[in-house]
Please model this.
Amino acid sequence: MGFKVAIIGRPNVGKSTLFNRLIGRRVAIVHDRPGVTRDRREGQGGIADMAFTLIDTAGLEDATDDSIEGRMRGQTEQAIRDADVVLFLIDARAGVTPLDAFFADHLRKSPTPVILVANKCEGKAGAPGLYESYGLGLGDPVPFSAEHGEGLDDLYEALLPHA
Ligand code: GDP
Ligand code: MG
Model:
């Protein structure tokens, strides 16, 4: 229903937590360890009156090829192709990592529009990572906390042009 939104990012940034938050019921399992999400999950999500199909990916975790390029293949690539818009998550508490930068380079070349989401921004610990993420060249980051449900208004505004 509506448009299709894919959640992309390296392991442990909070993709499944965001998925669960927007789906409104717990259909994806969230674990502390990366590598536990095996399947691509799709569900009907929404924010307020905005409805969309949401795709949770675990492409990186599923890598059988150890190279970074190999890890980009498969599920993640397919989700980017299928989606009308991509939510690219970073962990603002961890800051921008080389793998985030690699993803960003790839996403900048992709025709699918990208919304940069700086997750784990509750409190003050995310501020340096939030500012650092402006350097990824993907536009202004949306400060967000999937765990606490903060930033939904800004995410709504960012999604609106794609609805
Ligand atoms: P995924 O591997 O990208 O799907 O990440 P998960 O959704 O499994 O989350 C990884 C870890 O980050 C879990 O321990 C979550 O509880 C935690 N996490 C997710 N969102 C937030 C957030 O907004 N703030 C904080 N502090 N932790 C979060
Ligand atoms: Mg996950």
The chain has six helices and six strands. The radius of gyration is 14 Å. The chain has one domain: 3-162. The longest strand covers residues 41-47.
